[in-house]
Structure formats: C-alpha cells, structure tokens
Design brief:
The complex is a heterodimer of chains A (239) and B (450). By secondary structure, chain A is mostly helical. Helix content of chain A is 47%, strand content 0%. Chain B contains 23 helices and three strands. In chain B, strands 1-2-3 form a three-stranded antiparallel sheet. The radius of gyration of chain B is 22 Å and the shape is globular. Classes of the chains: A mainly alpha (239), B mainly alpha (450). Chains A and B meet through helix 1 and helix 9 of A and helix 14, helix 16 and helix 20 of B.
Chain lengths: 239, 450
Amino acid sequence: MLGEKQNRWVTQSGWIKSLIATFVRSWDRKRGISGGLFGGRSKNEGEVLGWSRGQQAAFLIYSWRALRDAIAKSNEEWAQSLRHPPMINEKPALRPEDIEQDDDLAFYSPNSLLATDQGVRGFLHVLNDLFYQRAAAMKLNDWRPDDRSSADPLTSVERELEALDNQEFTGFVSEIVTRLASFDWRTSSAPELSNELRRAKLVFRGSSGYKELRAQLLEHLECGTGDVQATAKTLLGRA
Amino acid sequence: MSGNQNLSGSDIPILEGLDKTDVERTLAGVRRFLRNSRWVGKSNFYAGGVSGKLRISQPDTPAKKRNLAQFIASSAALHASDGWSYLGRSISTLLCGDAHRSLHLAYYAELRAALSILASAGIGVFDKKHYVISDVNSTRKLTTGQGTHVTAWLALKHWAGRPGSGNLFASIVRPEGLTLEQWFHSHGGASALAPQAQSWLMQWGMDLEFSINDREARNESSYRPDGIPDTWMCQPAEVLDFVEDMWNLLEPGAGSEFANLDLHILRLASEKAYRGQSGKTANAASQGYQRFVEGLLRPHGFTDSTRNRLRDFLLRNSVPNDPIVFLQAQRIPKHSQSDVYAVLARAVFLLRIASGSTQQLFSKAGIEASELEFWKTEVGVSRGLWAPNSEPTHLTDLWADVEDSIGEVRTLAASAADALDSFHGLAINLPGAMKVFSSHERVGLWSMNV
C-alpha cells in the first residue's frame, strides 16, 4: 500500500490480503478446502458464526498475543539463536532500531518468519483451519456479543477481549500456540543456520512460501497431542 | 493522425450501435468449450488461420458468424494476456540493455492491449478485414480495409470518445475497493469523469497514433539496424529505477488488483475534477481543495487511520511525486532510446484497462474462475510462474516473488552498489530477480481474476 514501503514490517495491505485468504474467505465446496471462520458460510449448512466484528477482532488479537507469549516462554534453540545473534567483529550484533528493548527478537526479528507475509499468513491459516474444523464441537456460537458493543466498535474490542478469557475454546488457542512455539520460525537468512537447514528454509520465500509454510505448520501440529494433533491430521487428509 | 486516415463513414453508425451485452452473451456461449479446456469449439471454422480465411471470404452462414463472434469475444482475454507477455519480454530485453528491441516489443504490448479493449467492445481487428459482434453470436463486416495498426488506433480512438469508455473506466478503476463512479458520485459520477477518461486513453494510446503518422519512425525500432546513426544505450540504474517503479504500481491490493496504480489515478482525477469545477489549481495549501478532498472521503465511512492516510496522499503530503511511469506516459516519442520508457508506460495503462475490461466481461458472461483453471495452469506453468502441480492458492500470492526480488536488488544496492553498475552485473548478480521482473504474465492472471 502506498507510503508503507519505508519499513520492513508486514504492510496493512499484506494483513488484509492474508485475512481475506484465511479468516474471511468463503467456503469453496468444489476445492474442498476449509472456509474462513468469519467467511459467512459454513461447511455445515445453517451454521454461520454469528460473531460481531468486535468479537472477530478480539479473537485475532487474543490469538496473536497468545502466540507471542508462548514464544516468549520458549527456550527452543531456534528462539535462542534469534535472541542472541552471533558477535560481529567480537562485538554484540546491534539490535534493529525498530524493535523495542522489551520485545522478543524470536518474534520480532527480521530473521523471524513471524515478521514476514508468509509467517503472518501461515499462522492465520492454521489457526483458521483448525478452528473452522472444530467450530461446531467447540460451540463457538455460544459466545454472544456484548450488548453494548454496537455503539463503539473500538471499545467493544477491549470488552470482547476481556470476555474471551472466560471462553472455554481459548484453551484450544493455547494448545495450538504452545505447539507452534516449538516450530523453527527462522527465515533462510537467519545467521548460524547449517547449509542444509538454510536450503530447507528457502521454500518459505516467494509465492510458494505461503502454501509450504501452511503445510509444514500442519505437519508440525500433527506431531503434537490431543485435539490439535487430531484436527491437523484431519486437515492433512490423514485421519 | 494524417487526414486521409479515418474510419469509413459507413462504419461509424455500426460502431455506435454496438451493444456490449451482445459480446457478453456471445462469450457466455463459450462456457461449454471452456469446460473442455478450449476457448472456442473444436470445429470453429476460424480456430486456425482466421485472417487468411477472412481474406478469402466473409462468414456467409449463421454457423460461421457464430464461430467468428465467439472468436472475437474470447480474444479479449487472450490479447490482454499476450499484451502482458509482450510487456514482460520488453522489460527482459531492457534489463539486458537492449532498448531497441525493447521498444519494438513494448509497442506490441500496447497494440495487444488495444486489441483486447476493442474485442471486449465487440470489435475484431484482422489484418485488413475487420468485423464487429453485431448481435449475439453474429457478426457484421466493417468497410474499412486499412491494416491492423491503423484500424486498431482508429477504432480505439472512436471507442474512447463514446460514453461507454468513460463508464467502463469509472467502473473498473477501484482505488481502496471503491469504483471511481462511487468516489465521484457526488460530483456527477461517470458522466463527470468521461471527458477525463477520454483524454487519458488518448494519451496512453498516443503511440499507436504516432505509428500511423510516422510509419518510418515505428519501422526504425522494428526493422532498421541499431547503430546508425548511433547505437541506443541506456543506463542500468535508470532501467532498474523504472522497472521497480513499474512493479510497485502493479502490486495487487485487497480492494483492487492495481491498488497503487488506481490510487494514483484517483489523485490525478481528483485534481483534475477540482480544476474543472473551480478553475483553480489543486494544492494542499488551498482550503478549497482541502474541502473538496474531505468531500470525496466523507461518504465512505473510512476509519480515522485510513482517512488520514488517504487525505495525506490526495493532498500530496505523502508520496508527493507521481510515479515515473505516470510521467513517462505523457512523453511524446523523440526517436531515441528514451522512447522505450514512454511506450512501456502507456502499455501499462492500456493493459490495466484491458485487464479490467476483460474481468468485467467474464463477470457479466457468468464465467467463473474455476472454468478458466485450464488456461491459468497453461500460462502459469509454461511461463515458469510456478512448478507443475504447485499453483498458488491465490494468484495475488505471486506478488511475493516480485517483492522478494525488489528486496534482493535493494540489499545488493546497499551492500555492493557497484554490482549493479552494469548490465553484466545485473545478469550475473541477480539472475533470479531479472527473470521475475520480466514475468508480467503474473499480472495478467491476477488482474483478470481467473
């Protein structure tokens, strides 16, 4: 989007495109892929998620915060290597100027996939697909919008975020992000990658990266446990 | 344009009587062939050697007329796609430093865009025998016997002067997901924009006119040896700037397949409309223009951040300069290597209109993306946009390759600028990026929403 080229972060346009490609896409019977949780139509006829915009926004913010917090708790090798980049000329590598001191480099580093279009889309994709698959079982429609929400959409997001804490289905978010925190989110340009790993990560670059990252995230989730593992298995067509 | 080159007087009422719904309904009849991965039926008389067959005889049966009408309707998408291909090949040769060949190819990108726009309007240009879709599945011959290049320009010029072109322009250009018609609704909508649309199209198509007036000059790029009087040379930095500027304009957005290009058109349209309305030049310091811009923004219920971003842009407080492509599109050819930029720029604009027009035609004909899957795969795989069986879920994802390539150029420029000082350096240091920069077929696919 115009005027956004000055920084390296995922642009507003990139976010919108990823949301359209995941949470707000229509279910396509012919292609047999998951629809968007906010897409207005469901695989199961008659089931339309009745969440307000405030609830939708709150769910996305809640989930991203949960992923950020899960990664912050992670001591996986990939996360540590992004937090402690190698010395340059025997001096500590400079922290990028656009990252706050308290922010976790494992999440915000230019070498973290989570700061790329592909990473943003990847997380949104699997989050959407897993929730879409289990929407009925988790009775997502039981979460009703706050009656006061319609007046001011922005304050309604805050209210819905508070309300989300009491929803059982957030346990599924926690399971997903906990498992995803152990995925190696480094980009191919991260320092100290072996040649083999760097080559393997090149698949996340460019247009093929979106599909590839979704597939690898689902495979990673499939190796987990519980409902997350079972749902990922179903999505991969292996159930 | 020289005085003796005009459409035949008897052709004018035929062109003015064209009904776009005839093209749409004719194209709808092609859907049964699309299901068999073909654009026209196997037995379509004109499927091969159309120009030769029309030279020998007119379509003299209802079946042949239907065949020809279906050929014309289907060719809108294919000419547009070919035009994007020519643009890519032109950029490819420019990135090799060969402005002479690049100009030749850029001209054909323009011409194919014009042929696509005309086909969408029901006009088929075939060598010296030209036909229109005069009814659903039927055709009528035009009396003009002039060649493809002359006829394409004359017909485009005539079409651009009709109200339909302004309406088309106002409905396919969609800055922020809103049509120009919606943006200017309170200022008269499409009818207020029609004169602007006409002048823009004429400007972007100027090269076609130029080629009629000065055939020798066009032939210079197509047939004369490069080197007499001088070899055409261009600078790698200038070429890279132009190519990057062009690609930035072609980035797809959520609300429009040409998000940035359309926003720039909106800004120019806004300034022109204000000038037309007030007689004053639009500038950010003018309270009158500020009010005008607020009037454009107010009805659409944008969030504060979006409204602020758009206001800054429209008032030129952000991104104050027009892109290079916009500036080049206004340049009159001067018989030199710099002409290539002007021709490429106009090709981009004409192709933007051709893609939008085709997309609208598909939509009106009820053709869905799934019916064009075969064609999308043929183009995508054969031009190397993706590996077999690996097509992207969303065609706009193909933008990521371009973004990565722009990133590669910037990274190299920051770390080893001299690596980009020569065309040899570009070829050796950025082979992948040069390939991606020359692959405009991807724009054709995502912009026609196939």
